[in-house]
Amino acid sequence: MFVGGVVTYALGAKTDLLGVPAELLADPGPVSREVALAMAEGVRRALGAAVGASGSVVQTAVVPGGRGKVRAEATNQAIVALCDVVDSAPLPGTRVG
């Protein structure tokens, strides 16, 4: 079941809503593997969900183009990664198909 979603672009939202440590935002930076993992954990905690996209899986990609293209590709990759997680180990109470 889809519980909800959180879109956090501003640094303050990452810390205030998701509990991302300010130290991680400073170094290694807001667009890093460490921050992505902290955001996913924060989403899971905030919503009481079993999986948070990127979950415990972080993928790195270089996407040429503007912000819209990067966002669209990040969304596509997050959905594919989430489907892979659910397909490999279905969560209790979920059904795929």
Explain what the structure shows.
The protein has 97 residues and is mainly α. It has one domain (11-88). Helix content is 52%, strand content 0%. The protein contains four helices and no strands. The chain has helices at residues 11-18, 22-26, 33-47, 67-88. The chain is globular, with a radius of gyration of 14 Å. The two termini are 13 Å apart. The mean pLDDT is 80.
Name a few traits of the molecule.
single chain, 97 residues, mainly alpha, 4 helices
Topology:
Blueprint: H1 11-18, H2 22-26, H3 33-47, H4 67-88
What's the gist of this structure?
Helix content is 52%, strand content 0%. With 97 residues, the protein is mainly alpha-helical.
- Low-confidence runs (pLDDT<50, min 5 residues)? none
Q: Tell me the series of helices and strands, N- to C-terminal.
A: HHHH
Residue fraction in strands: under 5%
Number of folding domains? 1
Helix vs. strand class: mainly alpha
Main sheet record: none
Amount of helix: 40-55%
Q: How many distinct beta strands?
A: 0
Q: How many alpha or pi helices?
A: 4
Distance between the termini: 13 Å
What is Rg? 14 Å
